[in-house]
Amino acid sequence: MKKKVLLMGASGSGKTSMRSLIFSNNPASSTARLGATIDVEQNHVRFLGDLILNLWDCGGQDAFMDSYLTTQRSTIFQHVGVMIYVFDAETREMNKDLEYYRDCLEGLTQCSPEAAVFLLVHKMDLVREPKATMFEKKREELQKASSGVVITVFGTSIYDESLYRAWSSIVHTLIPNAAVLNKHLNIVAAACSATEVILFERTTFLVIATSTSSTSSPSASTSSTSSSSASISSSTYAPSPPSPSDPHQMHLKRYERTSELIKAFKWSCSRVREEFHSLELDMYDFTAVLDEMTRNTYVMVVVHDPTIETAAIKLNIRMARKKFEELQGDSIGT
């Protein structure tokens, strides 16, 4: 099963850098040497079992954009599962960017009306004014330019965890049996007496599913504003408020921070020619076990009960592997 993903935006907006960071395991510091994308670069990324992401990184120079909208229109915009349009947060040519975006959106709605649309306001680390205020202005501007099309907007940067939150939400929409995975993670959580269980894709370490309720899952970390809705990650630049009723409440950014930290640790291991396999953390107030679940996934089990032994958690993971291999091979899920 192939899912076509369009990655579009003006030249220099950071599309290739984020693709390199997410899919090629390169650190943010190495992206400066990447050259501009010429025309369209296609990459086939095996994500889960038979799910393959057909990623089209489209060069953003004016000549290429004009070609996509005229002679290559049907080729570019047909059979699209998701379009990701990237805007430079500090661009001085926003009007031109919006004009190209509207034209691309028109082509998408004509050729792939069921495609999801994600807009990334990128390079947020360069913004000098209060980030939340600036992001809200951009969100409203993009919502207005979308003319009734349902969109999801994220503020991102390659230098923090926000990029992982956005891409986890993007790929989550492409997984056909995500709800089934959530259900079975709840079973694992109950068996381990765990506070939370998270399933990651092996290579990218993007979050696929969690055992928590939908209000906390990466796929539901946005809020709609209307039928022509824009959805935003409201917690990207805001701390999570404490909850006196829940002593084990965890930070709202925990998923993307875990993705970022593990990817950085894996890269450090590769520098010394070592391979990452698993991780155990025994802290004073919780225990976390990160281990292989299937050939394409890792699972993290977080337990606050001090009476639960790490060996018991690992045994439950081992016993769950066969079922999750079956679920991964079932693109429909039952």
TrEMBL record:
<keyword id="KW-0342">GTP-binding</keyword>
<comment type="function">
    <text>GTPase involved in activation of the TORC1 signaling pathway, which promotes growth and represses autophagy in nutrient-rich conditions.</text>
</comment>
<feature type="region of interest" description="Disordered">
    <location>
        <begin position="213"/>
        <end position="250"/>
    </location>
</feature>
<comment type="similarity">
    <text>Belongs to the GTR/RAG GTP-binding protein family.</text>
</comment>
<comment type="subunit">
    <text>Component of the GSE complex.</text>
</comment>
<keyword id="KW-0547">Nucleotide-binding</keyword>
<feature type="compositionally biased region" description="Low complexity">
    <location>
        <begin position="213"/>
        <end position="238"/>
    </location>
</feature>
<dbReference type="Pfam" id="PF04670">
    <property type="entry name" value="Gtr1_RagA"/>
</dbReference>
<dbReference type="InterPro" id="IPR039397">
    <property type="entry name" value="RagA/B"/>
</dbReference>
<dbReference type="InterPro" id="IPR027417">
    <property type="entry name" value="P-loop_NTPase"/>
</dbReference>
<protein>
    <recommendedName>
        <fullName>GTP-binding protein</fullName>
    </recommendedName>
</protein>
<dbReference type="InterPro" id="IPR006762">
    <property type="entry name" value="Gtr1_RagA"/>
</dbReference>
